[in-house]
Amino acid sequence: TRSTxxxxxxxxxxxxxxxxxxxxxLAACSIETSDDSSLRQPNAVQIQPDDPTWSDIAKxxxxxxxxWNSGAASKLASPYTTDGKYMDEGIxxxxxxxxxxxxxxxxxxxxxxxxxxxxxxxxxxxxxxxxEEGVLEEKAADGTIIDDGKYIVLWEKRGGKWLxxxxxxxxxxx
Length: 174
Fold this sequence. Notes:
The protein is of the alpha+beta class. 37% of the residues lie in helices and 36% in strands. A 7-stranded mixed beta sheet has the order 1-4-5-6-7-2-3, with helices on one face. A hairpin with a 5-residue loop joins β2 and β3 (94-95). It is globular and about 40 Å long. The termini are far apart.
């Protein structure tokens, strides 16, 4: 039997469609999934928990939670850079220490003294800056969990001290 030009075109289109489909499938299968470290800047270095820098951030977080747990809004604002920014869910960003202090004062007026805990999950160095990813939990005086969530802090080293430059947190609870 002889094939007609129409049949040959249909067969060619079908083969081409199949070849393209197989190529797309192979390409999709070759894509590796990765953690978010592949999205980081090329000069990023992950800080390990035994690194002194991790310890510096742990100490800064301890001082922060101590100030929080004592209700000292002014002490909470002091470890921010002068142009630092605090961004929390449901409120406008607070820029500068005075505005950040007012946000914390407002929080304490609304919720009273609470107990905050922070835990670093990962820390990355970018030159003289750090990116910290962590989890948080806030409890009322009676131990009831008010909030649990996550945060990202961009730290800058100024005058030999790590200061919070950008601080964003959001809740896992609604």
